[in-house]
Amino acid sequence: MKAPSPLAFLILLLAAAGGGQEARRPFWVQALPREVSVSPGSSVWINCSTSCAQPEAWGLITSLTQGKKVAGPGWAAFQVLHVRRWDSAVRCFFTCAGETQEATATIRAYSPPSTVVLEQPPLLDLGTEYQLRCRAFFVFPVERLTMILKLGGRVLWSTSLAGSGDSLYSANVTWTFTLHPRLQDIGQLMSCHAQLNLNSVLVTRSSKPVKLHFRENPLSRVVAWVALAALAGLLLLTASGAFLLQPRGQLQPKGACLPQVESQLRRCLGR
User: Fold this and answer.
1) pTM of the entire structure?
2) At what angle do helices 218-244 and 258-269 cross, to 10 degrees?
3) Which of 92, 106, 159, 232 is deepest in the core (most CB within 10 A)?
4) Strand residue runs (E) in the chain
5) What pLDDT, in 10s, does the model give residues 53-76?
6) 32 by DSSP, 3-state: which?
7) Burial of 45 by CB count in 10 Å (0-12 exposed, 13-18 middle, 19+ buried)?
8) Per-residue DSSP letter, 5
9) Which residues contact residue 1 at a Cβ distance below 8 angstroms, ignoring those fewer than 6 apart?
């Protein structure tokens, strides 16, 4: 038998190398949806697909509970049950010609507050401290919640519930805060906001605004005292002018005009 020529041997080597590259040609794996949000306790399907015509192995890697699975040429679908983690990663994988490729999908479970209720403040007094409450109902996850209080359109106070515990269930949240009413707060609107921070997404629910009312109008009291002070000053100036205009020899004794000013002030004050 005649030995192959060097040229034929080279052609065989190139063909063998090309066949090996064909077998090891890269393939892709895809997971859909890449990101999905569900209510706590819900289930979801993750669809995995590949460009490999005949995968040797395939599956879904996750710490969540898996349910049904179906597959066809180049694809597989997996059911994930009872999702109660707010942020979970699942990984599809396919093995083709000894090589394994993966694709990741993110499942988020959250529930924004169904209702946010701000307690109606009582009739307020200046210089008095009040304890008020804001409630948010059926929130998940609580550890991603921030409560915000606004007064007159500005943020008066906020608190984060991070570190409150990693609960697997929705919860009702009550936030108690301290209000120190000021003169400029008369008639201002106050509102409470519950904000879920889901990394790249902020979900906010707000209460109905409530108006601050004071037991007595402190502004009118201030105006009254300013007016009385101005009147007292005017009466003193009038009395001083009358004293200076008295004819020589008829000067009234020292302090004689003060009772007149006092009687006028008493009449103004209704005493």
Assistant:
1) 0.65
2) 150
3) 92
4) 29-32, 35-38, 42-50, 57-61, 65-72, 75-83, 87-96, 99-109, 115-118, 130-139, 145-151, 154-160, 171-179, 189-198, 201-206, 210-211
5) 899 999 999 999 999 999 999 999
6) strand
7) middle
8) P
9) none
